[in-house]
Amino acid sequence: MVDRNLIRSLEDDTLSEELNSLFDGDSNPLDDRLETEADFTVNNVVEGTIIRVDDEFVVVDVGFKSEGTIHVGEWDADEDAPETGQKLQVLIEELEDEFGRTGDQYGMVSLSKRKAAKILAWTEMMQHIDEGQIVKGLVNRKIKGGLLVDIGVNVFLPASQVDIRRPNDIGDFIGQEVECEVLKIDEARRNIVVSRRSLIEKQRKEDRDKLLSTLEVGQVRKGVVKNIADFGAFVDLGGLDGLLHITDMSWERIGHPSEMVSIDQEIEVKILNIDRESEKVALGLKQQQDNPWDNVVEKYPVGDRVTGEVVNVMSYGAFVKLEPGIEGLVHISELSWTRRINHPNELLQIGDEVDVIVLAVSPEKQQMSMGIKQTQENPWDKVFDKYPAGATVNGTVRNLTNYGAFIELEEGIDGLLHVSDMSWTRKIGHPSEVLEKGQEIICKVISVDEGRQRIALGLKQMDDDPWSNEIPQKYQPGQVITGTVTKITNFGVFVGLEDGLEGLLHISELAEHKVENPEEVVTVGEQIDVKVLRVDTEDRKIGLSRKRVEWAAEDEAAAAADEAAQAKARMELKGGLGEKGPLISSGSDEGGGEAAAEAAESDGEPAGKEGEAEAEQATGSPEEPA
After folding, report:
1. How wide is the angle at C-alpha 284 spanned by C-alphas 268 and 209, nearest 5°?
2. pTM strictly above 0.70
């Protein structure tokens, strides 16, 4: 407060008048000055006047109680240097305090010319810009995620919005003037997002609609290659991209589309197909040339021998080029008559020149089948003369299967030795019981099928059939012999009589009493005496009995009469089945039980004709593992 009594006590009337003029009245200049200073707050833009320019700072009077300073670095090199008396807009960054601003030798108000200019430019821009508006600007900098574009203020152009397909380096746009659409304005954060892509898409949509209305299948159009993929290239026809598939680039085989076209290359293409609903266009390059498959039948007739180049080798065969655009497949099965080939590269390599025979031609599917082995003589043509039925041959066991062994007679010529043709008497479960891979053997040719390229061989046929004379003479009905139990089943016992020869001792012939389990009477490996009941040379079976070993002639006669009576009874039971068998069979019927045992014994033997049929089918794939 001002002490007016003290003033009145002063003798200096002049000073008193000056003070009165300063404090008296409705308007007080000091109060006005304080009121003006009260409007100065941080982040406000005010006008100031340059009062002094030093080496580091520019001093500006903004009407505050103390001056402010701006660093000289805020004037760009291409701007006019600051001058005393120059007026300018500045932003109040920081007000003075009792200690002064750090690093400011004057301890004055901190001002910014550059920030003030940005705020003023932003304020001005907000009066003239809106979302969806088209703006132009100069790309001045690349930042994380996109570009900065100067349209009066810096706006953000995301990398994804630079073009329809993102460029490899968006930095290539720096220094270019671009036209964009305003996508979003965030006034609070003073941020504007623009898109160049949206403008391009809108323009392309217009161009695409216009182009689709004029496109027709069969037209030849110019376009620019915009993108290349493994499956083809995308060509810009002027607002619409069409797909030029790799198969439509050339009649010849190509490995990658880049062999035919390059990015930004202008080419002429033919319109192959148009899907107006999905706005997709299929293009062709090779269709502008004549199709070499049009006259392929006349040029390469079936049976013709031609020379070609191997251009590709696959697991199933090799492709041979006869001329540009004409290729044929030599299947792996058509490579050699005799060699066993696991992969075509065992014989052929890319770049090899080979002679082939044309086997089939399909111009519609643009496919040709060819063969290399047909250029050579087929050794199977002479097999019938070289290996006639009944001939004795030498061979090597090459492979064993469940049903037999494949015997190599010469390279590429195999014969099948079926398991049923290995022994006259022995029941062989697997060929490995008799043979092994690599073994040299002598066998006999049973039959030759030239058409199916199959030879049937026999090992047992090297000896006479013992069932013809030897076995019937050696084993007479009623004869008592000694044998070894080799196998026990639920219906009886198999007894080994000699190497490979067995007889069946039915459960009903084991003992005088009824036997439920044969293992209670005999054991495998036990030697027992048995009597021969019958020898069936047709079915190659011998029936045995253990309980009749001690029977006298009267007992045998009684048993024979009883069996005859039972047989007659069974005949009388046959009804509408005629000769097919009894209508009712008694479980205690020894004859019926023995028949069942014989059937079971037959099931245990290797397959006969059915096995041979199976083996014949298998000869088509002789590499089946053992």
Report:
1. 75
2. no
